[in-house]
């Protein structure tokens, strides 16, 4: 497992040169600026509570300081989010002063199907995203049997086609990485294929920093520098020091005070804290711990 200087960048010569925001300690007299970005949460992290009581869960997250969310689990057949009609869910968000700026949709299932099927499904996703006020529709996952050069090339073709369809509706498509994109495929990687064979005008990128740390040689700033302005969203999550599984921000081995990249060169618009599992206590406590850590240690850079 390759993690290189990613998890020990504080000891790397020249680190300060590539991290203008977080490489220097704050002076005691420094007044923290107002955050430029809403503090976001990927709702998959708290899926158990969302399944029981979405409204109470959103209110609890709001009390922790979360303002924007990325959803999962859109019911395309019924046009619903967490059991609510899209318009009703939007009303709930508006009443709470919250937003859902992105969503993860299960597009991978359509890669082996006729093109008309994914065009129709994408149309339903567009309708839902417009109804709840999302800007981004995000491709989150590629099935295991497609994680080869041909599969990534087919995925890139679909992304270009869908990206044009989504852009025509006034929205934007993004691709979310895991770790398998960085595996060697005979001199290239899935991520190289996705980034080189998609049109950067219609396919943006969502950078998952946990998977980057776990599976690649790149630091966040290094990969951003390869595709400047294209990483419109980030996933920020920590890695357990012993198991490499997920953990709460501040409890793991990724030191974001040293590794958080430059939002401007990234093209950042939204970021989402995420913890897909391995909760120290439970999902609600983990959301609270991560929110507190980000507000104390990272929000001044965001």
From TrEMBL:
SUPFAM superfamilies the record matches: Xylose isomerase-like
One Gene Ontology MF term: isomerase activity
Highest taxon above the source species: Bacteria
Pfam families reported for this sequence: AP_endonuc_2
Keywords associated with the record: Isomerase
InterPro entries for this protein: IolE/XylAMocC-like, Xyl_isomerase-like_sf, Xyl_isomerase-like_TIM-brl
Residues covered by the Xylose isomerase-like TIM barrel domain: 59-260
Record-linked PANTHER family: HYDROXYPYRUVATE ISOMERASE (PTHR12110), INOSOSE DEHYDRATASE (PTHR12110:SF41)
UniProt name for this protein: Sugar phosphate isomerase/epimerase
Species, as recorded: Robiginitalea myxolifaciens
């Amino acid at each position: 497992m390759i993690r290189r200087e990613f998890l020990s960048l504080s000891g790397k010569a020249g680190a300060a040169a590539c991290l203008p925001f977080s490489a220097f300690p704050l002076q005691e007299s420094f007044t923290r600026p107002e955050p430029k970005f809403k503090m976001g949460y990927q709702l998959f992290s708290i899926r158990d509570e969302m399944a029981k009581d979405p409204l109470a869960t959103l209110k609890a997250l709001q009390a922790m300081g979360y303002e924007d969310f990325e959803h999962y689990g859109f019911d395309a057949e019924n046009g619903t989010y967490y059991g609510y009609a899209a318009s009703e869910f939007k009303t709930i968000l508006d009443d709470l002063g919250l937003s859902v700026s992105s969503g993860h949709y299960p597009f991978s299932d359509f890669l082996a199907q006729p093109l008309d099927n994914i065009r129709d499904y994408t149309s339903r996703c567009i309708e839902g995203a417009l109804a709840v006020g999302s800007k981004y529709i995000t491709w989150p996952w590629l099935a295991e049997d497609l994680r080869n050069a041909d599969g990534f090339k087919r995925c890139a073709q679909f992304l270009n086609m869908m990206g044009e369809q989504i852009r025509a509706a006034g929205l934007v498509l993004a691709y979310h990485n895991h770790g398998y994109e960085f595996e060697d495929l005979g001199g290239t990687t899935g991520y190289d294929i996705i980034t080189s064979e998609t049109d950067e005008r219609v396919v943006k990128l969502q950078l998952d920093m946990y998977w980057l740390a776990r599976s690649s040689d790149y630091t966040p700033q290094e990969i951003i520098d390869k595709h400047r302005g294209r990483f419109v969203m980030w996933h920020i999550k920590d890695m357990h020091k012993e198991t490499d599984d997920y953990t709460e921000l501040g409890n793991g081995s990724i030191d974001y005070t040293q590794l958080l990249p430059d939002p401007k060169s990234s093209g950042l618009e939204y970021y989402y804290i995420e913890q897909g599992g391995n909760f120290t206590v439970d999902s609600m406590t983990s959301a609270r711990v991560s929110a507190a850590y980000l507000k104390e240690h990272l929000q001044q850079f965001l």
